[in-house]
């Protein structure tokens, strides 16, 4: 037996051509329009259907559908079942022969709530590809329907970048950038997206703004009212909808101006900020580099409140690089982590941060707790 064959194919110029063909398929206007008002789950389903049109043994993409899909009427009407479940595994890639033996873009749709399951998928794909986990579309006792060890494992593993897109637009932008990075620029590792199916009431950013979702964050709304106390609110995934509600309450009830940012990947932001910090330390005579996080926040020392649907430690990753008072909130930050109570906790935490900074009278922190019956 030729043991050299027992490994996935290596990237070649054909790989770049296959990726370019996939990117061309994802650049059409009707797909962008479909993703504009879609959830991350339905957007990725639409993307998979588009790529499946060219799915063949010698095609430009390898689509694995290991997820059963959401058994909802909405998912069925969106054409979820129309994705050809021809490939239920990535293992056949290890045994391809002939002229078709070159790496092709891999989109792996799965549903997994444990580190063990994700590690199995990682081994199967040789730590390559774009993995989309739709576990959040199902009910679970765990935050975001995955065991608490999952986000910690993803954040600590340097060979992959985890994302938590809030909208279909973000999912499309991240997936396009991932195809470019992995299969055109030949960067190592994998990309991981968690998918939810909650539309919420999110604003629709411009294409120029949402392009930065791949870098980890982009601005949704600027702070209005130059004389009002201001704070930055950062949110990821489904939590972004709550962050926007909290911004509205802060403005209506307390006269606080809010700058709202979508942060699909706190992990990417923290890793890049650390790399830039280390480079600047080792090159004291060179012009200093600026991370994307620093570029977005700028020198203005506004307090920042970062929210995630995972444990608080995921948002806390960027705390050391924020040039102002920083607060992280997660599913483990308070007893009422979702719904209106969660939004009210965000408002109370924001008011407390502004009081600690002297931007609001200290009594307002107690007034907020009393008003929302939080204490």
UniProtKB/TrEMBL annotation:
Chloroplast is among the record's keywords: no
One Pfam family here: Transketolase_C_1
InterPro entries, sorted: PDH/Transketolase, Transketo_C/PFOR_II, Transketolase-like_C_2
Gene Ontology terms for molecular function: pyruvate dehydrogenase (acetyl-transferring) activity
Sorted UniProt keywords: Oxidoreductase, Pyruvate
Enzyme class of the recorded protein, top EC level: oxidoreductase
Gene3D superfamilies membership: 3.40.50.920
Domain Transketolase-like C-terminal as annotated: residue spans: 216-319
Entry superkingdom: Bacteria
Enzyme Commission (EC) number: 1.2.4.1
SUPFAM superfamilies, per database record: TK C-terminal domain-like
Regions crossing the membrane: none
The UniProt record lists the keyword RNA-binding: no
Protein name: Pyruvate dehydrogenase subunit E1
Organism from which the protein derives: Bordetella ansorpii
